[in-house]
Structure formats: structure tokens, C-alpha cells
Write a structure and sequence with these properties.
heterodimer; A: alpha/beta; Rossmann fold; 2 domains; seven-stranded mixed sheet; six-stranded mixed sheet; 13 helices; B: alpha/beta; eight-stranded mixed sheet; two-stranded antiparallel ribbon; 10 strands; 39% helix; 14% strand; globular; binds thiamine diphosphate
Chain lengths: 392, 320
């Protein structure tokens, strides 16, 4: 039986990872993800988890050690944030190419500079095209659930790709919430023991990580793209299994009060919970507003997006990162390109909010939604707005 | 014939006939590094996992879909052989403990060039040595970034001309002395460190065997002649390695638990360094002054080493 707990979400994430019995954990400290590996090392020290915890000397080595461990047939886990993710960036795209099902938690934090330890999504957006499956948790429960789902998805024979689970730094990592923690028995039932397809071991000799000439590189990239696109089917299946076993539903794009909605906001991560309250307030005022909470970022859920926005007059895409010098925020870029071919599509506005931990409250979402409705009459001059800039 | 000569005739017959690094790879002719790897694998035997840094040896051996390796082999990137190796070692240890793989010792062996060891991979190497992983790291030192076209590394010797510090009217090639990496690794309290060269194959293989048995980190520094980068005739590969030892440019020694032992293969008296330098196009431009400077430095470095061999004790002897 699952147990109701009240716990800091980072610690709960670590507990959830421990339930998945990783063989090797390698991590390097960086705020705000650090409590996850710290707590995992506690769990190992207490003898509750039989794993090797490697205190590597850098994030580059953290992900590299995970590659070695996963390549040798172990279940491997790491976690990082911001500069740490960039420090390991050289290795990030190699992991899916080698089909190593490593799971990584990212406590999302702004990229420097100026240096800043608080939340936004610039870290993961920088690694968007690397070939990992990428999910966003909106709260503590989703964090626990996604950590466990991640291993099963990653290790599925038709997937064999790394998964990163994004949880907003501080807004999630450092917040205490009531959550349901699955039992070991339940997780064992859900997640089978890891059986690697291939591993470096003298009993079954392989060469892993070869050199590809131009004659084969195109095909390798095509395969990498296809397997990621095709993983959506498996993700949906595994989410269905999760729902059947635990009663909590997961969809690429979750909906909140979308019935009859004319305007909707689309968010990633923890902003969704604040935005829900704003939607309630808007509905109270008689505005037909709803919310789309994107949980699956890669593979990008094109079909689900098309379905979710059909009938909308206005869509407000909320970004938490800037694509400097680009046409709009990174999420909006993708949403717009997915909708470009549609005959009917909503008016899209784009707000970039909450950079480097800048607080975003319910009133901000209400204001943004109202501005977006106003935009239907008079199109805004700019494709996006960095919201709440002082003096503007 | 005395016993030693007999041994020299007999010993090669004891070498494993099995090939683990097979013919058909794409190394240049006369490549000392490829020869050294072939010998290393024979000394290691089959219960080994090889972790390769990016560099010549990775590029020439695994052009997809072919492989020269009949040992399990993994490559991830350039700077991280030591940390990938740490992960492999950790995995093998845990999986064995949990009964998920066969219950026998598999040795994890990381290999990298001098660039992947002295420079970009140094941090990862230091971490893996410091953490005490049961990993053997072998550096195949050809004294430059050869895979990318003979650029200067921290291992390039003083006076050598490379493509990034070429000799010219205003330059005599590299202005700095080579980093003493074996010493740096020994300072991590690594129980076994050795220098070796493919031109002394049995010595090299014996050191590999010794290192393999160490339970914990060990490091072998293998000077590997690169005829292409050194501007040496391919048939002079072995000769160049021998001259490196005979002139004292590259002394052979072991550091076991803090105790230095000079190999009996080192000459009683050093040959003049000029014999070594004049064989190689990369030193062609050197003036008599520079050669003298190099000669002086060799004597200093050899004296430093002999002093250590004479005066330093093993940790066991130093225990209070
Ligand atoms: C991060 C990174 N920087 C640079 C390179 C380009 N590169 C590949 S191999 C190599 C040189 C390897 O030199 P070394 O380690 O001495 O080995 P060798 O090829 O001489 O055997 C370089 C610079 C790379 N692959 N990755």
C-alpha cells in the first residue's frame, strides 16, 4: 500500500528513485537539485539501497560514470541543475545515441550569467535537441510518479533511451507537500528488474560507441529521431499502466477546465498549479478560460497539442526561458511550428515569465490571460513579452 | 648463454597467442600505439573491459560496423575514459555483489592518448585515481594530439615542433618541459605506477600483468612512438623507443606503494640525447644550444629519479 507522506519534494524524489533500486548513482552537487543525491547517499548509507554512490569530481564525470555503468548493464541515475547540465552537455547527446537508459532528475535553474541559483527552464531548453525523453512535473506527486515511470519507459526494449524528469528548482525541489509514496511491493510490481540488451562484459563481447562515417551517420540520426518519436506510444502505454495500478492519470498535455474554453494558457512544470487558481478566478469572472499543462516535452506531443487547442480563440504560451535573438520563447516556437499547417488555429501570444526565480503569482496569470483576450481585438506589436520587467 | 639471455629467448613463447586487438584496423604503418595496445591486451587476457578515450586508437579500431576488438570495449568521448571506467567498475562490482553477473573478477582498463590523459581528461583521471576505483589506466603517450593532426599537448617535449607550436624563425618549437604525469598520479597514493615502452615488450607486458592484479587504481605510462607525428621512418618505430630509454629521455621505472624501482633495462650510462633527437624530424630545427639544454635537463631529471629510487621507502616500511 502507498503511504501518505509529507516531505520535501527533492527527498521524496530520492525515495522514489531508491524504490527503483538503481545499481549506480553518480552525482555532483549543484543547487537546487542537490538534496536528491544527498538523500540518496543517506539511503545508501542507511543500508536501505544496495547501490554504488560515486562522488564524482564533476557533472561531466557524473554522466560519464552513468554511461559506463549503464553500458556495463547497471541501472544508473544522476541529477543536476543549470551549469551542471551544461558541464555534462558534451555527454548528453551521446547517451541516447548509445541507447543507454539512464534516468536524470533536473532541478531546473537559470543558466548563468549573471549567476543565479533560482528557477527557470533555460537549462533544459539548452539540451532540448539532444535526443532524451523529457518530462516536466507540476508538483511533488508528479515528481515521485515520473521518477518511477522514467525507469520503466527508459528501459523498455522498444525505447532504450535516457529520460530526464524536470522539477522546478526551489518551487518544487525545496517545498514540502503531502504526497502518496508507493510501497516497495507496488514499485516492484510496476517496474521489472533491468535486463540490458547488451552490456560490456567478457561473457558477451560488444564494442559500444563506434565511429560513424558520413555513409552511415544520416541513418544513425534518422534512427535516433525515429526511436524518440516512436517512444510516445510506449510512454502512453506505461502511463496507462500507472493509472491502472495507482489511479493517477498522466497525459502528454493535461487539461484543466478546458470545457468550452475560448482562451487557454499553456504551461510547463510547477507554474501549472498557480495558473489553475488563476483559471478559477477567470471562470468566476465569466471568462471562458482553461489551462493546458504540458508534461511531455520530448517527444513533442504534436497530435495532443492539435487536439487540445482545437476550438480555442486564443492560446497563451507561457515560457520560462528566452531564446535570445529568436522569434519567441522556446516553447512558443515549437507550439507555433506545430500549428502552422493548421487551417484554423488560435491567436497565439507568448509571455516569458519567472526568470531566475522571479515570483509569479495568481494575479499575474489573470493579467496575462486578460491581455491575451484583449490581443484578439488589437494584435500585440511584439511576438513575445518578457513579463514583469521593472520600469517597462 | 647466461640465464637472462635464455629467458629472453624463452619468454616470448609464454605470450598469449590469442589476439584481442585484431589486424585490419586503420592505424598508420609503424604505429607504436597500436602495437602497444595489442601487447597490452595479450597481457590482460579475456576477463577485461576496455574503456577508450577518443583519439587515434578509437578512430582506427571501430569504424562502424567493424571492430578490431575482441575484448568488450566502450567509448563515450574524449575527456572521460577515466570516469566512464569508474562507472563500468562500479557496475561490475555491484552487479557481481547482487548476483546479476558471473561471480569472477573482471578488470576495467581505461586507455587514452597523452591529450586525453595529461590535458582534457586529467580531471576525470585524477578523480578516478583519488576515489580508489579498481581501474587500470594506461596512457599511450605519443607526445601530441595525433588524431587531430599533431598539435601540442602537455606531454609534448621541449623543443618539438608541432602544428600548433611549429618551429620557425621566431620559434624553436615547444618552449615548455613535459609534465611529469606519472609522478602526479603517484601523488594520488596510487599503489602501482609504472613507465613502459612498446620497444621493451616483455617489460611492458609484465607491468600490465602486475597492474592488473592490483585491487585498486593503477597507472601505466607507455611511451608510444608515432612515426607520422615524430617524423620518423616507420621502420624506426622500435628503435626510437629504445633510444628514448637509452638516452634517458624516458626512463623505465615502477612505483610500488611509494617505493621507486629503476628497471634493469635502463642503461648504465646514458647515450647522448642527440642520438635520439636526430632520428626525428620534429627536432630537426634544434640548435646546439637547445640540444645542450635538453641534455642538461635529462641529467637533472634522471638524477632526481635515481635519488628517489635510492631514498624513498615503501609505505609499509614507513608505518610507525
Ligand atoms: C571535447 C573534445 N575536444 C576536442 C576533440 C578533438 N579531438 C579528438 S581526438 C583529439 C586528440 C587526441 O590526442 P591524444 O589524446 O594525444 O591521443 P592520440 O590521438 O594522439 O592517440 C582531439 C583534440 C574532441 N573529440 N572532443
Amino acid at each position: 500500500m502507498s503511504e501518505r507522506i509529507g516531505m520535501e519534494i527533492a527527498l521524496a524524489a530520492a525515495e522514489a528513485v531508491a524504490l527503483c533500486k538503481p545499481d549506480v548513482v553518480a552525482a555532483y552537487p549543484i543547487t537546487p537539485n542537490t538534496h536528491i543525491p544527498e538523500h540518496l547517499s543517506d539511503i545508501v548509507a542507511e543500508g536501505r539501497l544496495d547501490a554504488d554512490f560515486i562522488c564524482v569530481e564533476s557533472e561531466h564525470s557524473a554522466l560519464s560514470a552513468c554511461c559506463g555503468a549503464s553500458g556495463a548493464g547497471a541501472r544508473a541515475f544522476t541529477a543536476t541543475s543549470s551549469q551542471g547540465l551544461l558541464y555534462m552537455a558534451e555527454v548528453v547527446p551521446i547517451v541516447p545515441s548509445m541507447r543507454l537508459p539512464i534516468v536524470m532528475a533536473i532541478g531546473n535553474r537559470a543558466l548563468s550569467g549573471p549567476i543565479n541559483i533560482w528557477n527557470d527552464h533555460s537549462d533544459i531548453m539548452s539540451q532540448r535537441d539532444s535526443g532524451w525523453i523529457s518530462m516536466f512535473a507540476a508538483d511533488g506527486q508528479e515528481t515521485i510518479d515520473m521518477m518511477i515511470q522514467a525507469f520503466k519507459i527508459a528501459e523498455h526494449r522498444d525505447v532504450m533511451l535516457p529520460v530526464n524528469v524536470n522539477l522546478d528548482g526551489f518551487q518544487l525541489t525545496h517545498v514540502v507537500e503531502p504526497m502518496m509514496m508507493p510501497s516497495q511491493k507496488e514499485v516492484d510490481k510496476f517496474l521489472p528488474a533491468y535486463k540490458p540488451y547488451a552490456a560490456v562484459h567478457p561473457d558477451n563481447i560488444v564494442s559500444m560507441g563506434s565511429l560513424a562515417m558520413p555513409e552511415i551517420f544520416n541513418e544513425a540520426m534518422m534512427a535516433k529521431d525515429q526511436v524518440l518519436i516512436n517512444s510516445k506510444k510506449i510512454i502512453l502505454e506505461i502511463w496507462k499502466e500507472w493509472e491502472e495500478q495507482f489511479g493517477r492519470k498522466y497525459e502528454p498535455i493535461g487539461e484543466y477546465r478546458m470545457e468550452g474554453a475560448e482562451v487557454a494558457m499553456l504551461t510547463l512544470g510547477s507554474m501549472g498549479d498557480t495558473a489553475e487558481v488563476a483559471i478559477d478566478a477567470l471562470r468566476e469572472k465569466g471568462v471562458k478560460a482553461g489551462l493546458l499543462k504540458m508534461k511531455l516535452w520530448r517527444p513533442f506531443p504534436v497530435e495532443e497539442l492539435l487536439k487540445a487547442v482545437s476550438g480555442l480563440k486564443s492560446l497563451v504560451v507561457i515560457d520560462r526561458a528566452v531564446s535570445f535573438g529568436g522569434p519567441c520563447g522556446p516553447v512558443c516556437l515549437e507550439v507555433k511550428s506545430a500549428l502552422y499547417d493548421q487551417k484554423e488555429r488560435p491567436l497565439i501570444t507568448n509571455y516569458i515569465i519567472g526568470l531566475g526565480g522571479r515570483d509569479v503569482v495568481v494575479a499575474d496569470f489573470v493579467k496575462i490571460a486578460e491581455q491575451a483576450i484583449g490581443a484578439q481585438k488589437k494584435k500585440p506589436a511584439k511576438a513575445y513579452e518578457i513579463y514583469g520587467v521593472r520600469g517597462s | 648463454m647466461n640465464i637472462v639471455e635464455n629467458f629472453d629467448l624463452y619468454a616470448p613463447r609464454l605470450v598469449d597467442k590469442e589476439e584481442y586487438f585484431n589486424a585490419g584496423h586503420r592505424a598508420c604503418s609503424g604505429c607504436g600505439e597500436a602495437l602497444a595496445i595489442r601487447l597490452m591486451c595479450k597481457a590482460l587476457g579475456e576477463d577485461t573491459v576496455i574503456v577508450n578515450a577518443t583519439g587515434c586508437m578509437e578512430v582506427i579500431s571501430v569504424m562502424y560496423p567493424t571492430t578490431a576488438w575482441s575484448l568488450p570495449w566502450i567509448h563515450v568521448a574524449f575527456p572521460n575514459a577515466a570516469s566512464v571506467g569508474a562507472g563500468v567498475e562500479a557496475a561490475l562490482k555491484v552487479l557481481r555483489r547482487k548476483g546479476k553477473i558471473a561471480d569472477r573478477r573482471i578488470k576495467t582498463v581505461c586507455i587514452g592518448g597523452d591529450g586525453g590523459t595529461f590535458d582534457i581528461g586529467f580531471q576525470a583521471l585524477s578523480g578516478t585515481m583519488e576515489r580508489g576505483h579498481d581501474v587500470l589506466y594506461v596512457c599511450f603517450d605519443n607526445e601530441a594530439y595525433m588524431n587531430t593532426g599533431i598539435q601540442r599537448s602537455g606531454a609534448t617535449p621541449f623543443g618539438a615542433s608541432t602544428t600548433t607550436n611549429p618551429a620557425g624563425a621566431a620559434s624553436q618549437g615547444k618552449d615548455e618541459w613535459k609534465k611529469n604525469i606519472a609522478e602526479i598520479i603517484a601523488s594520488h597514493n596510487v599503489p602501482y605506477v609504472a613507465t613502459a615502452c612498446h620497444s621493451y615488450p616483455l617489460d611492458f607486458m609484465n607491468k600490465v600483468k602486475k597492474a592488473r592484479e592490483v585491487e585498486g587504481p593503477s597507472y601505466i605510462h607507455c611511451l608510444s612512438v608515432c612515426p607520422t607525428g615524430w617524423r620518423v621512418q616507420t621502420e624506426d618505430c622500435i628503435k626510437a623507443g629504445r633510444l628514448a630509454v637509452e638516452t634517458g629521455v624516458f626512463p623505465l621505472y615502477e612505483i610500488e606503494n611509494g617505493k621507486y624501482t629503476m628497471s634493469s633495462l635502463n642503461p648504465e650510462e646514458l647515450r647522448p640525447v642527440e642520438d635520439y633527437l636526430k632520428l626525428q624530424g620534429r627536432f630537426r630545427h634544434l640548435t646546439t644550444d637547445s640540444i645542450e639544454k635538453i641534455q642538461d635537463r635529462i641529467i637533472l631529471e634522471n638524477n632526481k629519479l635515481l635519488d628517489k629510487a635510492e631514498n624513498l621507502h615503501s609505505w609499509a616500511e614507513l608505518e610507525g
